Amino acid sequence: MFQHTIDENLALRVFRLDDAEEFFQLTMKNKAYLKEWLGWLDYTNTVEDTKENIRGRLQGIVETGGYPKSVAILYKGKIAGTIGYNEINRTSRIGTIGYWLGEEYQGNGIMTKSCEAFITYGFTELNLNRIEIAAATENKKSRALPERLRFTEEGTIRQAEWLYDHYVDHVIYGLLREEWGKNQS
Hints:
6 helices, globular
């Protein structure tokens, strides 16, 4: 199974069913914080809901022929968040990355390093040609990541997502395989 060590404190690995309790507790601890920008939190109310989410992630490995679409971010051995390809278009070789990190883990470079690793994984293992990140226009923290990683801001999708009681616009960022090698220099 996929496991990638980034440094002595940080690793990415496939979720396991026995992660459900820890991942659920992280989600619940950060629910109010995450609800500002993530629209699925009302559907996660029990450990069993989290187990179902993990089962879906594991099924995604089958659908991609053995490659995980999403993984746990482990910081000092604890689940700190998740990163994954919310969508993969095999025909056009485009992947759309989504991510979240518990509030207490922010400011340590965890998501930047995790995203760099997952971008490399997308281009090398999944054979993607293009990677996209969509972030709500007002979500400054989420937008900072693709900007820091030198994605190109390509436009805004109006009313792209319903968040509980209102729509939010998304800024779309794109990165091409040929640009990633140049960005790493």
